[in-house]
C-alpha cells in the first residue's frame, strides 16, 4: 500500500484521489481473503465489481472509480500488462439533466447566507467555478484591474480564466484584507508557509511565505499536512459551504436537491439564457468538449421548457 501511495504522489494525483484509490484497493484485497493481487485475475475483479453493483447497489460512477483504482494497481504499481483488464466492462453512467435554480431561487438562497459561505456561494454562481477550484484560489490569481479570476490546475490539470463579478469586488477585497492580517500573525508565530504544488517549493524556496501564494479562503486554524506532517494553514473545508448551503435552501423553502455544483449548473444555464454563445460558456466552465456544455442548451427554445402543452392551447 505504501508503494501505491508513492506512485500516486509521483503522478501528482490529489489527496482525495489517493484516499479513494487506496480504499478501493484495500477493499478488493479484503474481499479476496487478503490474497496478493498478483494471485488474482479477471474473475476476481469482475466478481468484485459485480458485487458492488448488485449487492452494494452503488452508482455507475462509484463502480467505475473502483475499476480505475484496480487498473492503476495492476498497471502502474505491479507493472503487469494484463489484457483482460481492458476487457472488463465499465458501468454505463446514466444521463441526468442537471438541477438548475432560477435566478429568483439563487437570490433567495444567497439571502439566507452570510459571511464567508455567502461569498463562496456567490463566487460559484457568479463565475461558474467548481467548489474546490474556488477554495484553492490563491491571492495572486484574483485580478481586480481586469475583473477576472485565473483558475489554476482545474479539472484535467488545465488553467483558465473566468469573470470576476463586479458586485463581489468589494466583499472579496475585504476578505483579502483579513487574509493579509491572518498571514502576518502566522509569520510572527513562526509559520506562514502555505502548500505549493509539485516542486515549486524547491524551485522558489521563499514563495510559500509570500502574500500572493496564500489561499483566498484560508482555514480558521493551522493543521498538519496529511502527507508531509508539516503544520501549516490549509484552505477552508468544503463541508463549511455544504452545510451553509443546505441550511440556506431549507430556510428559503427550496425543495430541489441543491449542492455546490448546482450553482455552477445555474451559472451556465443563465449565461446561455442571456444570449452568450456556447463556446464562450465552454471556455468559462473549462469543458474540454463542447458536447459537455451542450447539456445546458435545454434552456433554449427546445425541450420541455420551449414547448406549449396542448392543454394550454385555446
Automatic annotation (TrEMBL):
Keywords from the UniProt entry: DNA integration, DNA recombination, DNA-binding
Domain (Tyr recombinase): residue spans on this chain: 96-309
Residue span(s) of domain Core-binding (CB): 1-78
Alphabetical list of InterPro entries matching this protein: CB, DNA_brk_join_enz, Integrase-like_cat_sf, Integrase_catalytic, Integrase_integron-type, Integrase_recombinase_N, Integrase_SAM-like_N, Tyrosine_recombinase_XerCD
Signal peptide (UniProt feature, chain positions): none
SUPFAM superfamilies: DNA breaking-rejoining enzymes
Homology family: Belongs to the 'phage' integrase family.
NCBIfam families assigned to the protein according to its UniProt record, in alphabetical order: integrase_gron
Name of the protein this chain belongs to: Integron integrase
Protein species of origin: Luteimonas vadosa
Amino acid at each position: 500500500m505504501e508503494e501505491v501511495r508513492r506512485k500516486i504522489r509521483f503522478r501528482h494525483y490529489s489527496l482525495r484521489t489517493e484516499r479513494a484509490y487506496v480504499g478501493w484497493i484495500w477493499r478488493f484485497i479484503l474481499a479476496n481473503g487478503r490474497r496478493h493481487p498478483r494471485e488474482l485475475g479477471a474473475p476476481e475483479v469482475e466478481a468484485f465489481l459485480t458485487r458492488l453493483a448488485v449487492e452494494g447497489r452503488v452508482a455507475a460512477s462509484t463502480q467505475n472509480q473502483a475499476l480505475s483504482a484496480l487498473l492503476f494497481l495492476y498497471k502502474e504499481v505491479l507493472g503487469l500488462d494484463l489484457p483482460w483488464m481492458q476487457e472488463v466492462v465499465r458501468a454505463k453512467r446514466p444521463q441526468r439533466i442537471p438541477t438548475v435554480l432560477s435566478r429568483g431561487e439563487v437570490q433567495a438562497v444567497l439571502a439566507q447566507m452570510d459571511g464567508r459561505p455567502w461569498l463562496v456561494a456567490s463566487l460559484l454562481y457568479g463565475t461558474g467555478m467548481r467548489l474546490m477550484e474556488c477554495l484553492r484560489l490563491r491571492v495572486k490569481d484574483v485580478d481586480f484591474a481586469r475583473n477576472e479570476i485565473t483558475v489554476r490546475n482545474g479539472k484535467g490539470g488545465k488553467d483558465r480564466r473566468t469573470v470576476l463579478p463586479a458586485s463581489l469586488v468589494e466583499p472579496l477585497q475585504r476578505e483579502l484584507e483579513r487574509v493579509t492580517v491572518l498571514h502576518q500573525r502566522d509569520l510572527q508565530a513562526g509559520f506562514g508557509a502555505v502548500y505549493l504544488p509539485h516542486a515549486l517549493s524547491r524551485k522558489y524556496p521563499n514563495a510559500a511565505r509570500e502574500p500572493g501564494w496564500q489561499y483566498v479562503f484560508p482555514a480558521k486554524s493551522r493543521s498538519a499536512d496529511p502527507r508531509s506532517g508539516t503544520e501549516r494553514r490549509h484552505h477552508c473545508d468544503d463541508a463549511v459551504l455544504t452545510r451553509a448551503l443546505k441550511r440556506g435552501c431549507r430556510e428559503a423553502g427550496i425543495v430541489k436537491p441543491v449542492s455546490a455544483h448546482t450553482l455552477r449548473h445555474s451559472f451556465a444555464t443563465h449565461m446561455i439564457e442571456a444570449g452568450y454563445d456556447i463556446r464562450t460558456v465552454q471556455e468559462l466552465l473549462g469543458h474540454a468538449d463542447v458536447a459537455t456544455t451542450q447539456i445546458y442548451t435545454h434552456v433554449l427554445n427546445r425541450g420541455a421548457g420551449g414547448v406549449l402543452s396542448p392543454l394550454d392551447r385555446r
